[in-house]
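Lab meeting, item 3. Inverse folding demo.
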């Protein structure tokens, strides 16, 4: 506690979807807004579950930062050119998501997030 007492704590929320959309557009230009919107929807569902602000409260022990969202987009673009067999039969979105976020998550959280991606993006 003595160590933690040395710091000034500031709580900062996530940026609005419009701001994140702009960030993603600049990270990888040319990706259709429809795809970016769906990625942001996934991130916001995960955030809500992590913070316990929806019906799936405590379903997730890991969350999406904006930086993680950008990393997921960049990895998706990179892995898009790879053969599915090299990615264990997964889509580029799913494979990139593992590397960007879910490889650090519990099995329950990973299943929850993958279910969201399947439901929202269909990948």
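The presenter then showed the designed sequence:
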């Amino acid at each position: 506690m003595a160590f933690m007492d040395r710091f000034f704590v500031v709580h900062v929320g996530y940026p609005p979807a419009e701001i994140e959309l702009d960030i993603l557009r600049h990270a990888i230009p040319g990706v259709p807004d429809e795809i970016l919107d769906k990625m942001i929807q996934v991130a916001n569902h995960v955030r809500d579950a992590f913070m316990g602000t929806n019906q799936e409260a405590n379903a997730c022990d890991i969350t999406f930062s904006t930086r993680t969202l950008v990393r997921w987009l960049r990895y998706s673009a990179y892995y898009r050119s790879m053969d599915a067999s090299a990615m264990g039969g997964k889509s580029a979105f799913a494979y990139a998501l593992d590397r960007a976020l879910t490889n650090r998550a519990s099995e329950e959280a990973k299943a929850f997030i993958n279910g969201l991606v399947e439901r929202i993006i269909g990948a």
